[in-house]
Amino acid sequence: VSVATASAGPTTSVAPLKKGTAEARTYHDDMKCILWTASDLASRISELGRQIAADYEGKAPLVLGVLKGSFMFYSDLVRAIEPCPRGLTMDFIRASSYGSGTESTGDVKLKTDLKKEKVAGRHVILVEDIVDTALTITTVIRYLQEECDVASVRTATLLDKHERRVINYKPEYVGFTCPNEFVVGYGLDFDEEYRSIPYIGVLKPECYAHLGI
Ligand code: 5GP
Q: What is the pLDDT of residues 139-149, one digit of tens each?
């Protein structure tokens, strides 16, 4: 697959893509609509950051990102926690439940190298991209409470798709309430694609029609 980028100068051998060909389609062409622009996300995240900073004043929170989908939200949110409480540390846990496509398998797998003695007694802020059925986040919370002895745990999720809950769970910090649509962008993927786009949009159904869903 040839790739054309703005930075690919005349000295590279990358062939320019022709407009109107299948190859020239971009991720933007696959969006049915944009729900939140980059600037919508930035202003909401700075509000969340200020709220978290006020709530955790004098505490030393451990900000724990739930990978992979939260990576972009995480990096913007930690910088928005202002003024930043002393002792704030950062770590990550990997959770996966989506095999492929747009439906969760419900079987949540966690991968982490967190050291129990470093997490015990900490005030944990979990950072998630989206809470949908809530199976993932409640699995992570159960792990932290039962295996790691944390002092407290709260969740900051960029999106809350509460219509699809399987478990009754309410995250403490929510960026936006998400309609019951499959969304991509700003870290959220479809089969590992679309994570890099700077806004959140709804994928056109024809993009996953081949999966029969
Ligand atoms: P839950 O366990 O709450 O059903 O789902 C949590 C995970 O499912 C999220 O971390 C995310 O990876 C994935 N997910 C749920 N809804 C969507 C969606 O609309 N778009 C994308 N890209 N991922 C989703």
A: 999 999 999 99
The minimum-distance atom of ligand 1 relative to the CA of 164 is 4
Which residues face 63 on adjacent strands?
A: 90, 125
Query: The domain spanning residue 62 has which CATH number?
Result: 3.40.50.2020
Any residues with Cβ below 6 Å from ligand 1, and which? 69, 97-98, 104, 128-136, 161, 182-184, 188-190
Work out whether the CA dihedral 9, 11, 12, 14 comes out positive or negative: positive
132 is catalytic: yes
Q: How many domains does the chain have?
A: 1
ipTM above 0.95 for this complex = yes
Catalytic residue, chosen from 132, 149, 160, 191, is 132
Q: Is residue 17 part of a domain?
A: no
Peptide bond into 161 cis (omega under 30): no
Tell me which residue range forms the domain holding 158: 28-211
Residue 22 resides in a domain: no
Tell me: pLDDT of 35 over 80: yes
Q: What are the tens digits of pLDDT across the range 93-105? A: 999 875 555 555 5
- Is 3 inside any structural domain? no
Q: Which amino acid makes up residue 12?
A: T
C-alpha 89: how far from chain center: 19
User: Does residue 2 fall inside a structural domain?
Assistant: no
CB 30 within 8 A of CB 59: no
